[in-house]
Design goal:
- The radius of gyration is 21 Å and the shape is globular.
- A hairpin with a 4-residue loop joins strand 12 (about 225-235) and strand 13 (about 240-250).
- The longest helix has 17 residues, at about 280-295.
- Helices cover about 30% and strands about 25% of the residues.
- The protein has helices at about 20-35, 55-60, 115-125, 130-140, 140-150, 170-175, 200-210, 260-265, 280-295, 330-335, 340-355; strands at about 5-15, 40-45, 50-55, 75-80, 85-90, 95, 100-105, 160, 180-185, 195, 215-220, 225-235, 240-250, 270, 300-305, 315-320.
Length: about 350
């Protein structure tokens, strides 16, 4: 019997965003979920300066995140050969590598905003996740919310500020949105640069903080409700997971911040699955599919909602490359839905190949 050739997979991880370290953890988990009998896995790491390096497996699982050892074939620089649709490992000799599928494990800027997806499209290489448009609109909270609102999906009230353009006076903000309110960079993930404002001083400090991360800032009304999450998997006909809930320890954190997510082990609880009526679960799952389609998403995504006491539901956002760590809600929700990480990664690769073929 002829031996089947392994599918050549390239994981690209790290990156220049504020979520660099989370990307490393996600890449480790994905690597461990790839069946070595089916896949031949290669690694490229993008450092915080945007330089690309060829990495070996030992380095991925090393605690010495930036300690490259070129003598062991780790840390060779990488360039892209557009003419040959390949990645070139530089050294004493140039080694060209071609891949069947690329899995971009890049959270945040230059990973989820359509830029790496555009590069891979130009190389004509199948890749996991949403395309250029779906990634770009999913990353920009302003554009995302306007598209959802246009489609008739429920989103909270918000307005947008642009750097170097006169800000909106606090009195007007308070009149339009009430208090408290949230201030966010339009293009960031993992709650980076987000503030909760209860007064004018909070508002001014929050605006200043958000502009450190983006030239566009979104100011949102506060919606009091349970933070519900749903994982989506698929292309044209996506499937949805059971639902989970984020419960933040309000004694130590005002909201689900970066510190609560990653720096305080007791800062947040991830509950999955949660108990709701069958009708409410179906409503949220159906809305998740609708959001996924409206935003032109593909492959995978985690969609976050607010569920209020009166039963009303609001879409918060989509994450088009959700965290894939052992503690991430995306993987936890599929696990409680009966889908293992190995099955999940297999399906994502299958979806990438199918999307490229079409």
């Amino acid at each position: 019997m002829k031996k089947l050739e392994k599918v050549k997979i390239l994981l690209i991880y790290g990156g220049q965003s504020t979520e660099h370290e989370v990307s490393v953890l996600s890449a480790r988990n994905i690597h461990q979920s790839l069946d070595e009998k089916k896949y031949k896995v290669s690694l490229i790491k993008i450092d915080k300066d945007g330089k690309w390096f060829w990495i070996n497996q030992d380095h991925l699982f090393s605690d010495q995140i930036e300690d490259f050892d070129r003598k062991k074939g780790c840390g060779s620089e990488v360039v892209v050969d557009f003419n040959n649709k390949s990645f070139c490992e530089l050294g004493d000799n140039i080694i060209k590598h071609k891949f069947d599928v690329v899995f971009p494990v890049l959270h945040g800027l230059y990973g989820e905003d359509g830029t790496i997806q555009g590069l891979l499209r130009m190389l004509d290489i199948p890749f996991v996740g949403s395309g250029v448009l779906g990634s770009a609109v999913g990353m920009d909270k302003d554009i995302m919310k306007r598209l959802l609102r246009e489609a008739g999906l429920p989103v909270g009230k918000f307005f947008v500020l642009h750097k170097n353009i006169k800000t909106v006076a606090f009195a007007e903000v308070k009149k339009k949105l009430g208090l408290p309110l949230f201030i966010k960079p339009a293009n960031q993930g993992s709650s980076i640069g987000i503030s909760k404002a209860d007064n004018e001083m909070d508002y001014k400090v929050g605006i200043e903080k958000a502009f450190l991360y983006d030239t566009k800032v979104i100011v949102e009304e506060y919606i009091e409700g349970r933070e519900i999450e749903c994982s989506v998997l698929g292309n044209d006909n996506p499937t949805v997971s059971l639902l989970g809930e984020i419960v933040t320890d309000k004694t130590s954190h005002k909201f689900y911040s970066y510190e609560a997510k990653y720096l305080n082990e007791n800062g947040v609880s991830l509950i999955a699955p949660i108990k709701l009526s069958k009708a409410k679960i179906k409503q949220i799952q159906d809305m998740a599919v609708n959001v996924f389609k409206v935003l032109n998403s593909a492959g995978f995504g985690r969609i976050d909602f607010f569920l209020c006491k009166d039963g009303s539901l609001y879409v918060n956002e989509i994450n088009t490359i959700p965290g894939f760590t052992s503690l991430s809600m995306y993987t936890k929700l599929w696990e409680v839905s009966g889908v293992s990480n190995i099955e999940l990664v297999d399906k994502l690769i299958e979806l990438a190949l199918d999307k490229h073929k079409k």
